[in-house]
Design a protein that fits this description.
about 325 residues, Rossmann fold, 2 domains, 8-stranded mixed beta sheet, 11 helices
Length: about 325
C-alpha cells in the first residue's frame, strides 16, 4: 500500500447511502461472515444487512442475554458464541469453536470497540483501548487465518475512526506506563493501530487472494459514547445543553444503518480488488488529508506507512507471545 492509493474511486455511493443501496444485486448465499460487536449499534446493522443478503453470520458476544434480545429482530442465518476481546483465552476459545462449524470464512468484520474510556488495564496490564480495539482483534484474526485462507477471495474489514488523525502509535509508551493517561490520545492510538493492522494484514493475505481494508464509519450516536457524559458531548459540540442535536451535527452525523455502509462496501465491492489495504470513508476510498481537509474527513499519512504497519505487526506478535 502507498499513500498514493488513497484516492476516491468514484464508487457512486455517498456518506448517507443505505445498506440496501450498497448490497443491491449482491448475493451472499453460501458465504460466511463473522462480525464482532455484531449485536449492538452499527455492528447490529452490519449483521442485519449481511444476513439479509444471504450470508451466514456468526456474532461473537460478550453479553449473551443482550445479544439474544437484539438479534431476535434479525432475519436470516445468524448465530452467536461467547467471546470477550479483553480476554485472549476467550478469543482463542471462540476461534476454536468456529473451526468445527464452518468450512471457510469469507468475511471477518472487526467492528467491536471501546472509546475514550477511563484508564483500565486488561490481560497482562495492557491499556484497555489498545488491548480491546487492536490486540483482541489481532489475536482473533490470526486464529482465523486458516479459515480465511480456505475461502475464495476473503476480506477482512477493520473499523478505524477519523480520530486516528489526532496521533499515531506512541511507540515509546503504548501502554501509558511512563506518561499520564489521556483517553482521546489512547483512542487515537488504537484507531491508528486498526488501520495499520489492515495494511499489514493485507500483505499476509495476498498469497491466497485475500484483501484487508480499514474504514471510518462516520459519526454516529451509538452505545460507543457510553463513557462520555452529556457535558462532554456538549463541549465537543455534538449535543446542545438540552440534549438535542445541533443542525450542523445532524447534517454530518449518520444513522446506525448509514454507519454500517462503508463496512459493507469494503467487504463486497469489486472496485477494491486492486486497492489492497486502503482506508475508506463514506463508501469510497478516503482522500489523503491536506491543508484544506476538514477535521472529520480524509486520512493522515501515518496510517499509510508500510514500515509502521510492519513495526506494529512485529510488536503485536511479541505482545501476544508474552500474554
Amino acid at each position: 500500500m502507498a499513500a498514493a492509493d488513497q484516492k476516491p474511486l468514484g464508487s457512486g455511493f455517498h456518506a448517507k447511502s443505505e445498506p440496501h443501496e450498497i448490497l443491491a444485486g449482491v448475493d451472499l448465499t453460501g458465504k460466511t461472515a463473522i462480525v464482532t460487536g455484531g449485536y449492538s449499534g452499527i455492528g447490529l446493522e452490519t449483521t442485519r444487512a449481511l444476513a439479509g443478503a444471504g450470508a451466514s453470520v456468526i456474532v461473537p458476544v460478550r453479553d449473551p442475554a443482550k445479544a439474544e434480545e437484539n438479534l431476535s429482530s434479525v432475519q436470516g442465518d445468524v448465530s452467536s458464541a461467547k467471546m470477550d476481546l479483553a480476554d485472549l483465552d476467550s478469543v482463542r476459545d471462540f476461534a476454536a469453536s468456529v473451526h468445527g462449524k464452518i468450512p471457510s470464512l469469507d468475511m471477518l468484520i472487526n467492528n467491536a470497540g471501546i472509546m475514550a474510556c477511563p484508564l483500565d488495564r486488561v490481560g497482562p496490564g495492557w491499556e484497555s483501548q489498545f488491548a480491546i480495539n487492536h490486540m483482541g482483534h489481532f489475536t482473533l484474526t490470526k486464529a482465523l487465518m486458516p479459515w480465511l485462507a480456505k475461502a475464495d477471495t476473503p476480506r477482512v474489514v477493520a473499523l478505524s475512526s477519523i480520530a486516528h488523525k489526532r496521533n499515531g502509535i506512541l511507540w515509546d509508551d503504548i501502554q501509558f506506563e511512563k506518561n499520564d493517561y489521556e483517553k482521546w490520545t489512547a483512542y487515537a492510538q488504537a484507531k491508528s493501530a486498526n488501520a495499520l493492522f489492515a495494511n499489514g494484514l493485507n500483505r499476509r493475505m495476498q498469497d491466497f487472494g485475500g484483501r484487508a481494508f480499514s474504514v471510518h464509519p462516520g459519526g454516529i450516536f451509538t452505545p460507543l459514547q457510553r463513557h462520555l457524559p452529556i457535558e462532554e458531548q456538549v463541549e465537543l459540540g455534538w449535543l446542545n445543553k438540552d440534549g438535542s442535536v445541533p443542525p450542523m451535527v445532524a447534517q454530518i452525523f449518520k444513522t446506525p444503518t448509514q454507519g454500517c455502509t462503508t463496512t459493507l462496501w469494503a467487504a463486497t465491492s469489486a472496485l477494491l480488488n486492486d486497492k489492497p489495504g486502503v482506508y475508506c470513508e463514506d463508501c469510497d476510498v478516503a482522500q489523503l488529508m491536506d491543508e484544506n481537509s476538514l477535521p472529520y474527513e480524509h486520512c493522515a499519512p501515518h496510517i499509510t506507512d508500510d514500515a509502521d504497519a510492519e513495526r506494529l505487526w512485529d510488536l503485536s506478535e511479541t505482545l501476544l507471545a508474552t500474554a
